[in-house]
Amino acid sequence: MIDAKDQILGRLAVRIANVLRGKHKPIYTPYVDTGDGVVVINIEKLALTGRKLQQKSYQNYSGYPGGLKTTPIEKVMEKHPDRVLRTAIKGMMPDGPLARQMLRKLKIYKGSNHPHMAQKPVVDASQAGEKKA
């Protein structure tokens, strides 16, 4: 379980992608799903460095002339902050069916409430040290 409050988007995405792939384990194998599930809370409090909130945008092209849509990250963060993190993590994963299977183990929630308490999620060790300091 990871608390995204005041975490930087790219650095958080790298940590989550590595846990989903299983790179933090000694039994890591690139072609086998050895990763763990990740629950991310407080996604609406995610931090972006510099002027990314004003300058970064997502592009979607329909394939037709004049079909390019550009959406600033500021609007996406207002409506669907989970999509920003999910897109960043997806870009750090390999292409193919194994990566899609690994991404299914990613659960992202606004606020601190989530329905996974029965699975007894473990708070990320690197965050536990940050909270004590």
Number of continuous helical runs:
6
CATH homologous superfamily (4th level) name of the domain at 2-48 and 81-120: Ribosomal protein L13
Mean pLDDT score: 90
Q: Helical percent range? A: 25-40%
CATH class of the domain at 2-48 and 81-120: Alpha Beta
- The fraction of residues in strands falls at 5-15%
**What is the strand tally?**
5
In angstroms, what separates the terminal alpha carbons?
19 Å
- Sheet/helix structural class: alpha/beta
Biggest sheet: strands, sense, closure? 3 strands, parallel
Low-confidence stretches: none
Q: Could you please say which CATH topology of the domain at 2-48 and 81-120 applies here?
A: Ribosomal Protein L13p, Chain: A
Q: Any idea what the radius of gyration is?
A: 16 Å
Order of helices and strands: EHEHEEHHHEH
**How would you describe the shape?**
globular
CATH architecture of the domain at 2-48 and 81-120: Alpha-Beta Complex
Strand order of the largest sheet: 1-2-5
Q: Looking at the chains present, what oligomeric state does this protein adopt?
A: single chain
